[in-house]
């Protein structure tokens, strides 16, 4: 509470306003005031989120406005899930540079000019026509984390003199709290419910406080930064429906921010859900602006500005490295810079790491620049999709000439064992980044590697297959053990993966000229499935032989009885001549049938086909 | 009914091939002290026939009234219970099953079934023969653990049940199990014996068998009596009256393997290797055991190969066969062998013809 009071004193210069706002469940402040992270800290006690007053001194004092009765019977436990902030003011107490150097003007934004302009135009138009126009009041901004989506909205709003009202996601209820609450008789509502209620209210009544604004010269913008977590299909449908309604009937300009996580980051399908959500909202009439990752150059510009203002001398090369390592995430870049400046010894290590391998610098392709991030103590871990990693292994890109050949300490290999340096990280690292597991990686490589060998290279094919066979042996070596030793299993797994990948890279000495290849799903999986199925069938046929008096071995059934029975069966039903052909045809037909069905499967599964990387 | 089944000797007296073994078994049963038995020998040599005849000798025709059951066994394995489904074939006197069907859980099967059999021990009217017989097939495919537990249960319940084990190679049965059994080796019948049996079948069917024809079938059969009789029957369906130079139809999968072999000989390239893989998959899907595929493939390749290369090729086949047993996915290893062969053969062709 104390903290909140402090903010009230520091930021709100209109005490009368406060009284007014008490009754409403919304509050607002003038564009210069800043109500940044305080409500979060204070709403710890609030299990329920209301449209409530972030400045509420005590909600019990509330003087009867009608709105209270409308939607806050239990207002007392609800501090705001809704905060208002406009513009940005710098507070000296802020130590984080990210907050300290929040962009205040359009010029300071690192986001691409065109995108900013686009958003700005949309706002101007909406704010102008607010009264007449009814529909299409929703703007959808998408982009990775840290590309400045919220910052852009805030800056533009303050530029246009509009107030940003932000839906703030309620704090999740932890289990102890939940127990406590239910003991004290409070009712639990899910966060999604709360969001739905909120949207419902917004649709019906718009933003209430605008009526208190005294003539409302300032226009309001609703910002929904954090969509509630929708887990599972039902919840997702609800969220979708509710946002749909919002898009169709929002009264005031509303901005919905959707953070796209990289598709490779998570294995679940939630990113796909977000994409669907975007599409459906767009269909409903929402306008969409997609923010790209911030370019290295503009991150560099911002970082050097910060350095100037903070008076720390970081040389341009290091700024450059940080900017590259951030992967277009400016928030991350700034934090890295701050961390880097705080710890002087890091600077040394940074220069050291960037300076060591001289040949690294000579390689100028994009991959390497990204990879340098790994030597940085403050880099971000990149993730790759499994298909990307497989593509790297299969295409086997190498330098055209060896640059370390001059090194005298280099271990001299016989010519047939020597390979040019790889144009990628150590394969293990790549595997690690793509979260590849040994078995599927080996299966995928086995399925696809032959396509990537040159037509003449039979010896290479043998080397590759023999390494794959080694990998399979390693993978099997622990499967029969009675007690599982996870540590050993781990080591065996990773060494098997390493053997298979390195085997493929080493063995493919004469790669076929690079062209477009689709990566197929291992047919082996399908084969194994049908094998299991056939085996089960065969078990039931086991009593066919021996006149039902004894069971026979499966292999005998498969290799001797089945062919003969098939043969005899055909013979009896069909003519003599057609027979010979038909058994063969049958086999061939099976073949071709399997082939086509497989092709279909492949088409389905290799949506993320790989082009030449 | 197939001829193999129709002319299978039902009693130990009627056996045509392993008469000496049959007589010994008969004596053994007559003395009423039947030890555990381990029958081993190559496929098609008559192990099963002897076992069935032996059971009949022991228990009379009642042993032939069997019913097939798909039984689920609930096994208590320490912390959890495992459900195992297994096909068994049982009469009042004996139970037959393939424990290796249970995969890596085979040891539970062995313990559990023997325990259960020991519990409901049949009592004869005379109070004699208070034991049941358990026939276990494919013992060589059991895991080492299962064989250990088999050993233990064998000792524990030896008063109430007798085991008849059946396998192809005794080398994969642990020493401990082998020493607790009377080992009966069943040789593959000689070609003359096979000819004799074929002629017997021919006479019973009232067929004219030209001279030399039976010998040809016997030669092709790889000394497997079952193969021989099956081939004889297919020939009968294919063409009758027989001619002595009549073609003996091969098994379809063997034909397919020889097709693969000629594919390999025709072209050696990664692309061809890929096509071969597709064909190998086809074989494997039809439950042809990978070891047999590899063996047959080697056989077909050797037929067409220059003598100079045979040694090396055999070496690699053995190497990858071993790998295959240790490994998980057979195709990886078969394919490695094919690739190695292609690479050797291509080198040879280049060296010879430039």
From TrEMBL, chain A:
One Pfam family, short name: Rad17
Gene Ontology molecular function: any one: DNA clamp loader activity
Any single biological process term in GO: DNA repair
Subcellular location: Nucleus
Alphabetized InterPro entries for the sequence: AAA+_ATPase, Checkpoint_prot_Rad17_Rad24, P-loop_NTPase, RFC_lid
Record has Chloroplast as a keyword: no
Domain AAA+ ATPase: 135-295
Region (Disordered) residue spans: 1-55, 581-613
Keywords, ordered alphabetically: ATP-binding, Cell cycle, DNA damage, Nucleotide-binding, Nucleus
Xref: SUPFAM superfamilies: P-loop containing nucleoside triphosphate hydrolases (SSF52540)
GO cellular component: nucleus
Superkingdom field: Eukaryota
Subunit relationships: Heterotetramer of subunits RFC2, RFC3, RFC4 and RFC5 that can form a complex with RFC1.
Similarity section: Belongs to the rad17/RAD24 family.
Protein name as catalogued: AAA+ ATPase domain-containing protein
Organism: Camellia sinensis
UniProtKB/TrEMBL annotation, chain B:
SMART domains listed in its UniProt record: AAA
Annotated keywords: DNA replication, Nucleus
Localization, UniProt: Nucleus
SUPFAM superfamilies: P-loop containing nucleoside triphosphate hydrolases (SSF52540), post-AAA+ oligomerization domain-like (SSF48019)
Molecular function GO labels: DNA binding; DNA clamp loader activity
Major localisation: nucleus
A GO biological-process term: DNA strand elongation involved in DNA replication
Annotated GO CC locations: DNA replication factor C complex; nucleus
InterPro entries registered for this protein in UniProt: AAA+_ATPase, DNA_pol3_clamp-load_cplx_C, DNA_Rep/Repair_Clamp_Loader, P-loop_NTPase
Functional description taken from the UniProt entry: May be involved in DNA replication and thus regulate cell proliferation.
Name by which UniProt lists this protein: AAA+ ATPase domain-containing protein
Organism: Camellia sinensis
């Amino acid at each position: 509470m104390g903290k909140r009071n402090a903010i009230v004193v520091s930021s709100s210069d209109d005490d009368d306003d406060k009284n007014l706002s008490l009754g409403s469940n919304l509050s607002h402040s003038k564009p210069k005031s800043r109500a940044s992270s305080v409500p979060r800290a204070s709403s710890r006690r609030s299990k329920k989120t209301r449209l409530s007053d972030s400045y509420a001194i005590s909600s019990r004092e509330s003087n009867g406005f009608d709105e209270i009765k409308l939607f806050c019977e239990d207002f007392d436990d609800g501090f705001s899930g809704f905060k208002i902030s406009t513009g940005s003011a710098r507070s000296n107490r802020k130590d984080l540079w990210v907050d300290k150097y929040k962009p205040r003007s359009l010029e300071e934004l690192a986001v691409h000019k065109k995108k900013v302009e686009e958003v700005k135009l949309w706002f101007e138009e909406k704010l102008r026509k607010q009264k007449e126009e009814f529909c299409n009041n929703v703007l959808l901004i998408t982009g990775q984390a840290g590309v400045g989506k919220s910052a852009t909205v805030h800056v533009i709003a303050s530029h246009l003199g509009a107030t940003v009202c932000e839906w703030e996601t309620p704090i999740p209820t932890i289990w102890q709290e939940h127990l406590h609450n239910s003991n004290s008789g409070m009712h639990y509502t899910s966060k999604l419910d709360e969001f739905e209620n909120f949207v419902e209210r917004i649709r019906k009544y718009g933003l209430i406080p605008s009526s208190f604004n005294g003539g409302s010269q300032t226009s309001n913008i609703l910002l929904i930064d954090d969509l509630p977590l929708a887990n599972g299909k039902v919840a997702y449908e609800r969220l979708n429906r509710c946002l749909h309604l919002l898009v169709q009937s929002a009264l005031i300009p509303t901005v919905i921010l959707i953070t796209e996580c990289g598709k490779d980051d998570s294995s679940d399908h939630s990113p796909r859900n977000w994409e669907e959500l975007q599409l459906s909202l767009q269909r409903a009439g929402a306008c969409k602006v997609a923010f790209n990752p911030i370019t290295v150059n503009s991150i560099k510009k911002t970082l050097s500005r910060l350095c100037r203002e903070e008076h720390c001398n970081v040389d341009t090369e290091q700024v450059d490295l940080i900017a590259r390592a951030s992967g277009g995430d400016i928030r991350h870049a700034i934090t890295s810079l701050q961390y880097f400046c705080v710890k002087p010894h890091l600077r040394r290590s940074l220069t050291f790491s960037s300076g060591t391998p001289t040949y690294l610098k000579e390689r100028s392709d994009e991959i390497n620049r990204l990879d340098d991030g790994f030597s940085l103590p403050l880099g971000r871990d990149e993730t790759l999709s499994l298909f990307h990693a497989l593509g790297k292994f299969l295409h086997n890109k190498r330098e055209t000439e060896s640059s370390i050949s001059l090194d005298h300490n280099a271990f001299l290999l016989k010519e047939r064992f020597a390979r040019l340096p790889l144009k990628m990280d150590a394969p293990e690292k790549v595997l690690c980044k793509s979260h590849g597991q040994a078995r599927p990686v080996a299966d995928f490589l086995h399925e696809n590697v032959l396509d990537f060998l040159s037509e003449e290279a039979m010896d290479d094919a043998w080397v590759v297959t023999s390494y794959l066979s080694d990998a399979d042996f390693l993978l099997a070596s622990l499967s029969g053990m009675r007690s599982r030793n996870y540590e050993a299993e781990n080591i065996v797994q990773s060494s098997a993966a390493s053997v298979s990948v390195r085997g493929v890279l080493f063995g493919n000495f004469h790669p076929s000229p690079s062209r477009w290849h689709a990566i197929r799903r291992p047919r082996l999986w399908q084969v194994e499935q049908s094998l299991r199925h056939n085996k089960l069938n065969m078990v039931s046929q086991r009593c066919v032989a021996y006149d039902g008096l004894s069971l026979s071995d499966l292999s005998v059934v498969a290799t001797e009885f089945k062919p003969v029975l098939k043969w005899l069966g055909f013979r009896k039903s069909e003519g003599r001549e057609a027979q010979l052909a038909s058994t063969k045809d049958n086999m061939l037909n099976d073949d071709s049938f399997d082939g086509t069905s497989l092709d279909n499967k492949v088409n389905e599964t290799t949506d993320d086909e790989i082009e030449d990387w | 009914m197939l001829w193999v089944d129709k002319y299978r000797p039902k009693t130990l007296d009627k056996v045509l091939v392993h008469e000496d073994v049959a007589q010994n078994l008969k004596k053994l049963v007559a003395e009423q002290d039947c030890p555990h038995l381990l029958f081993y020998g190559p496929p098609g040599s008559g192990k099963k026939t002897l076992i069935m005849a032996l059971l009949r000798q022991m228990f009379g025709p009642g042993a032939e009234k069997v019913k097939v059951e798909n039984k689920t066994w609930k096994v208590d394995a320490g912390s959890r219970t495992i459900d195992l489904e297994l096909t068994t074939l049982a009469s009042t006197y004996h139970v037959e099953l393939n424990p290796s069907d249970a995969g890596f859980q085979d040891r539970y099967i062995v313990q559990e079934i023997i325990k259960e059999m020991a519990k409901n021990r049949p009592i004869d009217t005379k109070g004699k023969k208070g034991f049941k017989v358990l026939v276990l097939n494919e013992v060589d495919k059991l895991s080492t653990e299962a064989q250990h537990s088999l050993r233990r249960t064998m000792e524990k319940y030896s008063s109430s049940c007798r085991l008849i084990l059946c396998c192809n190679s005794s080398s994969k049965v642990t020493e401990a199990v082998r020493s607790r059994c009377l080992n009966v080796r069943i040789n593959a019948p000689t070609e003359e014996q096979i000819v004799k049996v074929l002629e017997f079948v021919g006479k019973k069917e009232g067929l004219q068998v030209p001279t030399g024809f039976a010998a040809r079938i016997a030669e092709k059969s790889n000394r497997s009596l079952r193969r021989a009789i099956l081939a004889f029957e297919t020939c009968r369906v294919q063409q009758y009256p027989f001619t002595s130079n009549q073609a003996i139809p091969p098994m379809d999968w063997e034909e397919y393997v020889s097709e693969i072999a000629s594919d390999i000989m025709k072209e050696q390239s990664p692309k061809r290797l890929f096509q071969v893989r597709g064909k190998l998959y086809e074989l494997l899907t039809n439950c042809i055991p990978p070891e047999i595929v590899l063996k047959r493939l080697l056989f077909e390749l050797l037929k067409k190969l220059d003598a100079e290369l045979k040694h090396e090729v055999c070496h690699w086949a053995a190497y990858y066969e071993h790998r295959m047993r240790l490994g998980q996915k057979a195709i990886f290893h078969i394919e490695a062998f094919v690739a190695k062969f292609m690479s050797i053969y291509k080198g040879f062709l280049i060296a010879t013809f430039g």
